[in-house]
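Case study.
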Amino acid sequence: MKELNERTKKVLCAIIQSYIDLNVPVGSFMVKRRFSFGLSPATIRSTMAGLENLGYLTQPHTSAGRIPTMMGYRYYVDSLLMKNNMNINSVLLHKLYKRLRGIQKNLNVMVIETSRTLSFYSNCIGIVTPPKAEEKVLKHIKLIKYEKNRALSILISEDGTVNNNVVNLDSPYTQSQLRKIANYLNDSFAGLTMLEIKKRIAYQLSREKQACDRLISNALIICKELIIWESDNMLLEGLTGASNLPDFVDIKQIKEVLKTIEDKKLMLKLLSEVDYSKGIQVFVDLGSIIPSMKKMSMVISPYTDNKNARGTMGIIGPARMNYKQLIPIVDHTARALTQVLSET
Amino acid sequence: MKELNERTKKVLCAIIQSYIDLNVPVGSFMVKRRFSFGLSPATIRSTMAGLENLGYLTQPHTSAGRIPTMMGYRYYVDSLLMKNNMNINSVLLHKLYKRLRGIQKNLNVMVIETSRTLSFYSNCIGIVTPPKAEEKVLKHIKLIKYEKNRALSILISEDGTVNNNVVNLDSPYTQSQLRKIANYLNDSFAGLTMLEIKKRIAYQLSREKQACDRLISNALIICKELIIWESDNMLLEGLTGASNLPDFVDIKQIKEVLKTIEDKKLMLKLLSEVDYSKGIQVFVDLGSIIPSMKKMSMVISPYTDNKNARGTMGIIGPARMNYKQLIPIVDHTARALTQVLSET
DNA sequence: AATAGCACTCTATACGTAGGAGTGCTAATA
DNA sequence: TATTAGCACTCCTACGTATAGAGTGCTATT
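After joint prediction, the assembly is written out as follows.
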């Protein structure tokens, strides 16, 4: 891939910016009118022809202007991130922080509210994954007698999330037996991540099937069940807002996207592979990963509570989205969320 | 409103059934072809003209067949319910019961799964409201020390639902103090509905502001906070399926519906006013209640656990939906859910 | 190397026409 | 008197044609 010369770069970015702004194939005259770098339409035309050959632009038909290819968007976004010449309205920024700060400090509520916020300010689909279940650190387990052969378990994590679940027992236990089981589990596992706990349980159960105490082996089995139940999840908000975008005129596309989102599995898989170390990331053309997401992009950023909890949050919208505005919005929302969560 | 004569009824229902089946304005020849009651097209035409005058049918334009008005659907559905000549595939019925029976007996999961089931078998939007929070009967409250000034509360209802919530305390309490508070609350309120508890708390707090024990008054305040938090909710599934219906060609309509559904408030209000005593109910033309739901209908039925819990469940779809199939589906799903919940 | 000029291409829009489905009215019929 | 056949009429839809406009690529010129 040869490096583009300065002028070619400029023309490419001008075209993409115009297309993002106007949603219409942009021709040589349009570029000249909107960005008066002293070039004649003819010159711009030949540059455009070059960019088309290189694969950055394409024509819907012979006598139309150019529109960006996915490769074009990729280039555009990368050069934006490089130059970092994006701007965010300071009033909006203030509102963003205020809104997140106003929420009660309950992680579950926080996650919902963040996805709403993202959707609200971006007019895209807001997406937030709570901290990964496997990485959560166990703080405390509590077991309460519930029905004859069942116990209510309460699982408190270091990050403040609480999960409850009904576990089935092999035989009736008294409340004091349940307390003993809970004590054992707390002594053994508090402070460890769910992943570590899972591993240890598997090890202990395999090692001494017969040797150990019935109470203990039952405790292990209960705990195993508990942890399995703690599955990953994800929250999406703002289908309405997103569907108002001019790009969603294609009803087939909208249905496809709805379907994928309702399915969640694919999205979760994709999100689980996001690289936490990288900061903000832009996936231009989700279609190459999830077929139904053709011509869609995702801007995503990690967040943490500065302890163990790490999650991802961002937006999904048309590849033609206004990156210049939206990348900073996602970025600042992630910072704001991290900050608020760290204050606990 | 004059009663229609037998033949006119027949023609009206034939036209509506045809329109539901084919989604095309139906003319006199069509009726003759599909339903050979010995009438000539000319006769059918004059009957149709009469029905149009009465407001049951309408013409998209002068030289087209007739389509039903909302009043027409109303008449059609009422006569269906009256004659009760609806049929349900017994294989489908079997699957329906099997599916609901296969779910673990956790009310929350049950509700999600029911709305999925409804959506799956109807290709409409499935809608289920969990039992009304106010009508829930308190079984047991448990308080656990959580952080300095906070306690984790676990609220178990008779119907098996568990809610947890973090309550803020005015000052630090020890675990044993919390236990005392919980005991007091259990002694006072277990077995009452949330609504009753709310009333009693309001009464007690107002009656003896100074007289009573600090612990008790705190207990009351905590409990109040808990109960307020228990708000009504609703679950919707199957936007994808519904959007595949041929009626949803209008993108504007689909967006309007999405918006309303995302909002939830209007829907909840509507559902809270459903008459439990009536069994299955059909709202033809939701548009008259919720403007964005033009030309949509709702088939809805109550369910119970044969104790205190009562909720509503049903489907939302185009006014042109196949009532003959879908009314029995909703009906049987409600019966199945009631049966499964009653088995606990 | 950049530009002006020009012929060419393709789309979107409007318009006109023909075909067809369905009606309402009227007169004939059982 | 209720029903029906016949017929003129209406209106939608599909399809073909014509036209304006936007934008291009190529070529000759600066």
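Observations recorded in class. The first strand of chain A starts at residue 57 and ends at 58. Strands of chain A lie at 57-58, 67-68, 125-129, 138-147, 150-157, 162-168, 235-237, 281-283, 296-304, 310-318. We will return to this complex in the next lecture.
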